[in-house]
């Protein structure tokens, strides 16, 4: 086209095109604004879900993405971040079931064998949160022996050791899986005597779970325990430790009454926990605590003394 008439058609076409572009812009802008008003968010990738800035509880689809990422990547940074995100979400009961149904427990469980200690710790933390669900414990119990080996062969007072002890404590809240720790009781007392305050408290929480079960009493009393164990009954010991060792004594005595084993048993050898707890030194130490400055400790002692 040429001349003024052609130029007019071109100008009209440009105006129509600009108008159409503006309409499309308004439509898409309005849609985005509407999405924001409705609380809709763009879909997050699996890696986005692990960046620490996503605070919402993940839904089933997002958890599935995260599990796939955890299973497929070899990047230790991404693995650790994914385990932290999974562990945080496993604190919610609804997600404990979803992760199990998505086949997530073996995916997380396989990471406790990782050579990276930080990844091992995060995997144990995630399993710990998942283990609050009783149905999950059925699947998690296959890792108990491995966790015990790591706890007792790894560095003392390490993050991995504490994470493992917390998981074992959760797994022994009920009596169902306590028998799986039978061969590790002497090791537990060794860690109790050599660990720092935090480790001592965590081991005692686990031992208290075992001590409430009459079926575990004989195993506890057979354990070979160094005589330094009795120093935990000294008055200067931290209250959180002292109360627990007193409760341990009380629980075992109560179970002995249930089982009818109050007399010295010939199967209990010298150096066993039985001889320590039922010796004169232990009785004297507990009786001396009747004058303890803490009212809660004193009350506990007063309930025990008649049974000594």
From TrEMBL:
It comes from the Eukaryota. Gene3D superfamilies: Leucine-rich Repeat Variant (1.25.10.10). It comes from Papio anubis. The chain crosses the membrane at residues 6-25. The keyword Lipoprotein does not apply. InterPro entries: ARM-like, ARM-rpt_dom, ARM-type_fold, Armcx_regulator. Keywords: Endoplasmic reticulum, Growth regulation, Membrane, Mitochondrion, Mitochondrion outer membrane, Phosphoprotein, Transmembrane, Transmembrane helix. Its main location: endoplasmic reticulum. GO terms for biological process: negative regulation of intrinsic apoptotic signaling pathway by p53 class mediator. Residues 58-278 form the Armadillo repeat-containing domain. Interacts with the DNA-binding domain of p53/TP53. One of its GO terms (cellular component) is endoplasmic reticulum membrane. It is a single-pass membrane protein. May play a role in cell survival and cell growth. May suppress the transcriptional activity of p53/TP53. It is found in: Endoplasmic reticulum membrane; Mitochondrion outer membrane. It holds the Pfam family Arm_2. The lineage of its organism: Eukaryota, Metazoa, Chordata, Craniata, Vertebrata. This is Armadillo repeat-containing protein 10.
């Amino acid at each position: 086209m040429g001349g003024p008439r052609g130029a007019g058609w071109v100008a009209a076409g440009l105006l129509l095109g600009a108008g159409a572009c503006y309409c499309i812009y308004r439509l898409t802008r309005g849609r985005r604004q509407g999405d924001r008003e409705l609380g809709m968010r763009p879909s997050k990738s699996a890696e986005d879900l692990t960046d620490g800035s996503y605070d919402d509880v993940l839904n089933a689809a997002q958890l599935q993405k995260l599990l796939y990422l955890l299973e497929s990547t070899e990047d230790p940074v991404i693995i650790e971040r994914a385990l932290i995100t999974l562990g945080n979400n496993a604190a919610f009961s609804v997600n404990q079931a979803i992760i199990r149904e998505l086949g997530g427990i073996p995916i997380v469980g396989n990471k406790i064998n990782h050579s990276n200690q930080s990844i091992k710790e995060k995997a144990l933390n995630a399993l710990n949160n998942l283990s609050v669900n009783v149905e999950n414990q059925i699947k998690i119990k296959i890792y108990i022996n491995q966790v015990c080996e790591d706890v007792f062969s790894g560095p003392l007072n390490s993050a991995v050791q504490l994470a493992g002890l917390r998981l074992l404590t959760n797994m022994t809240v009920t009596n169902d899986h306590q028998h799986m720790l039978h061969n590790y009781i002497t090791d537990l007392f060794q860690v109790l005597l050599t660990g720092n305050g935090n480790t001592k408290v965590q081991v005692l929480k686990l031992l208290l779970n075992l001590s409430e079960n009459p079926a575990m009493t004989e195993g506890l009393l057979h354990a070979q325990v160094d005589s330094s164990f009795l120093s935990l009954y000294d008055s200067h010991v931290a209250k959180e430790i002292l109360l627990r060792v007193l409760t341990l004594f009380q629980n075992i005595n109560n179970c002995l009454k249930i089982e009818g084993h109050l007399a010295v048993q010939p199967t209990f050898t010298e150096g066993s926990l039985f001889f320590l707890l039922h010796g004169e030194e232990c009785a004297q130490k507990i009786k001396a605590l009747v004058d303890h400055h803490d009212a809660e400790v004193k009350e506990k002692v007063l309930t025990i003394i008649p049974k000594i």
